[in-house]
């Protein structure tokens, strides 16, 4: 028997705790978000960002990224949600369109939605958009890698048939199983390809940053180029139905656009910002740590008056306080 990757039992896709149903796909997405937040927080804090400011970004960017991811998927698979058999007057049609827990979330949509959220949060916190994006870049790739495990739990987004030893087993009962193929046919595990590719990209960015300061959008540019190259290949061998323009799937075109945008950002950055990034904050919005406090009395004063008020005051009169 040749080696292969088994699909999980259908029961693994979700489980119940009391009245609540927990979806494995959602847990993978949540785990990816946590990984990205933790890594980005560490990177941004080391660059002078206020500890915890990443949470401010997450509050805005994560919901918009999820909305964008679902909207992109639905718009590129309109027939699956609003076809002839799905009347617009049926509430189930609309519920199915927003059922993010059932899978079907487009990363390009999450990038667009998340970018809007990051821009809003950058105006709120004073952190530069590009500075945050650079700190986020490797964490974003790791989040996408972890999230791809959800596709395995849902047995979705696999590629064309293959005889490779790491082919994915897909039951014939699967909705996307191609008609006419015999049971036991193996398929390219495109979710695994992207998981490995994204993880490698995150490691590459972290290694390059040991020698070169990827600031002013350069890490963001590398992310867009790396992800775009990989996605253009993996998307080309997927067999799930989607919108096609000029013979190419819409996500392949999006991948090409991602590569071009990444190159443009890097070229613009090298020309516009050849110097060192001195702060992740915009001028006038810098975060200043709280001033240390000392006693208003010296040791000699306390010896003369042991009962003196020992209230603490800022070391420097009028010291600035932290702000976001």
UniProtKB/TrEMBL annotation:
Its main location: membrane. Its EC number is 2.5.1.145. It is a multi-pass membrane protein. Keywords: Cell membrane, Lipoprotein, Membrane, Transferase, Transmembrane, Transmembrane helix. Residues 301-324 are annotated as: Disordered. Pathway: Protein modification; lipoprotein biosynthesis (diacylglyceryl transfer). Residues 301-310 have a biased composition (Acidic residues). It comes from the Bacteria. GO terms for cellular component: plasma membrane. The chain crosses the membrane at residues 12-40, 52-73, 93-120, 127-147, 191-208, 251-269. InterPro entries: Lgt. One of its GO terms (molecular function) is phosphatidylglycerol-prolipoprotein diacylglyceryl transferase activity. Catalyzes the transfer of the diacylglyceryl group from phosphatidylglycerol to the sulfhydryl group of the N-terminal cysteine of a prolipoprotein, the first step in the formation of mature lipoproteins. Belongs to the Lgt family. This is Phosphatidylglycerol--prolipoprotein diacylglyceryl transferase. It comes from Amnibacterium setariae. The gene is lgt.
């Amino acid at each position: 028997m040749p080696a292969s990757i088994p699909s999980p039992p259908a029961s693994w896709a979700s489980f119940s705790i009391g009245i609540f149903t927990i979806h494995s796909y959602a847990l993978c997405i949540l785990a990816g978000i946590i990984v990205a937040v933790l890594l980005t927080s560490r990177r941004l804090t080391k660059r002078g960002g206020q500890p915890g400011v990443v949470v401010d970004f997450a509050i805005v960017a994560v919901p918009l990224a999820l909305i964008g991811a679902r909207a992109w998927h639905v718009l590129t698979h309109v027939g699956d949600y609003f076809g002839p058999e799905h009347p617009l007057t049926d509430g189930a049609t609309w519920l199915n369109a927003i059922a993010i827990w059932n899978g079907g979330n487009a990363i390009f949509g999450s990038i667009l939605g998340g970018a809007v959220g990051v821009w809003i949060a950058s105006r709120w916190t004073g952190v530069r958009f590009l500075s945050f994006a650079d700190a986020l870049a490797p964490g974003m790739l790791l989040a996408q890698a972890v999230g791809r495990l959800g596709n395995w739990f849902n047995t979705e987004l696999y590629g064309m048939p293959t005889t490779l030893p790491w082919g994915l087993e897909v039951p014939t009962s699967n909705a996307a199983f191609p008609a006419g193929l015999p049971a036991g046919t193996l398929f390219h595990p495109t979710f695994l390809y992207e998981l490995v590719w994204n993880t490698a990209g995150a490691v590459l960015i972290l290694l390059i940053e040991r020698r070169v300061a990827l600031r002013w959008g350069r890490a963001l540019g590398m992310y867009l180029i790396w992800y775009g190259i990989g996605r253009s290949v993996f998307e080309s061998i997927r067999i799930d139905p989607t919108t096609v323009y000029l013979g190419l799937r819409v996500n392949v075109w999006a991948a090409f656009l991602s590569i071009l945008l990444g190159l443009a950002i890097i070229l613009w950055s090298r020309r516009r910002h050849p110097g060192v990034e001195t702060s992740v904050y915009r001028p006038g919005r810098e975060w200043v740590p709280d001033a240390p406090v000392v006693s208003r009395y010296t040791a000699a004063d306390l010896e003369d008056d042991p009962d003196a008020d020992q209230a603490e005051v800022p070391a420097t009169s009028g010291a600035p306080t932290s702000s976001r």
